[in-house]
Design a protein that fits this description.
The chain is an alpha/beta fold. It is built from ten helices and seven strands. Helix 1 packs across helix 8, helix 3 runs parallel beside helix 4 and helix 4 packs parallel to helix 5.
Length: 273
């Protein structure tokens, strides 16, 4: 039976992907950083693991247990991550560092730790969760934009370095997808950004806070978490997965604009989003 380790499975894309793959006969090892979420996953019939992706020891222990159980690891889905809203001048360096610790350095750590196992077995699939914001940038998302651009660089380079092996690297560029991502972003915004003393206070009040706190997600082209889960299932069911998968029309449209438009024209469009 094929198996996969997925990070960030407390809700949203990670949880939906775990359920979808399990339903389709794939052995899923989901993980979460909180004990209560691990217990929730266990109640759903998963052999779940406690992984705070910023703690290399927890990654190491989990991989060792999977190898002990199955003598192999077919795939990993580096899904864990969060978004830190706010204008870049309002983002302290330590806040940006925290964004990179979770979204970039931890992804790199799990990738590095799983590669020796995949090299020894002679195959494997590494799925890196990027974003449409790894292709284009939007205002007040600079911290998150930068982390996703970094993932693009890591994934593209790793794919080249593994081109003579049967270890495949796939990047997922997700657009607007229903999840608790926005709930967590609100907390980070309120916690880390001095909104009252910002040069962007008016825009925070009239635009960003309104959007972040709106209970209805009116984002154009928004799709359910299953849209990503189905792509991961597709990757698991193919011998040679593609290097890149777009999810949602927004990703296709903005990715196309990035390729064909001049920077100045693209900037004018992105200013209005």
């Amino acid at each position: 039976m094929r198996n996969i380790l997925i990070t960030g499975c407390s809700s949203g894309i990670g949880l939906e992907t775990a359920k979808t793959l399990k339903k389709n006969g794939i052995k899923v090892y989901p993980s979460a950083r909180k004990e209560k979420d691990v217990k929730m996953l266990q109640s759903l019939g998963f052999e779940a693991f406690l992984i705070d992706v910023t703690k290399p020891e927890q990654i190491k222990t989990t991989l060792e247990k999977i190898i002990k159980n199955d003598a192999k690891i077919d795939a990993v889905f580096n899904n864990a991550g969060f978004g830190q809203p706010g204008a870049l001048e309002d983002i302290k360096t330590e806040v940006l560092r925290e964004q990179f610790e979770t979204n970039v350095f931890s992804l790199h750590e799990l990738t590095r730790q799983v590669l020796p196992y995949m090299r020894e077995q002679g195959y494997g699939k590494i799925i890196q969760h990027s974003s449409v914001l790894g292709l284009i940038s939007l205002r007040f998302r600079g911290s998150y934009n930068a982390s996703k651009y970094a993932i693009e660089g890591l994934a593209d380079t790793l794919r080249l370095e593994l081109s003579n092996t049967k270890i495949f690297v796939s990047t997922i560029n997700t657009g607007p997808v229903t999840s608790k991502f926005r709930d967590n972003a609100v907390k980070k915004f309120n916690q880390n950004v001095d909104q009252e003393n910002s040069a962007f206070k008016k825009e925070y009040d009239t635009q960003l806070n309104t959007r972040l706190n709106d209970e209805k997600d009116n984002t154009p082209f928004n799709l359910p978490a299953s849209s990503v889960a189905n792509i991961i299932l597709k990757i698991m069911n193919t011998d040679k997965p593609k290097p890149r998968y777009y999810v949602t029309k927004a990703t296709y449209i903005l990715g196309f604009f990035k390729r064909v438009l001049s920077t100045s024209i693209l900037d004018k469009i992105l200013q209005k989003i």
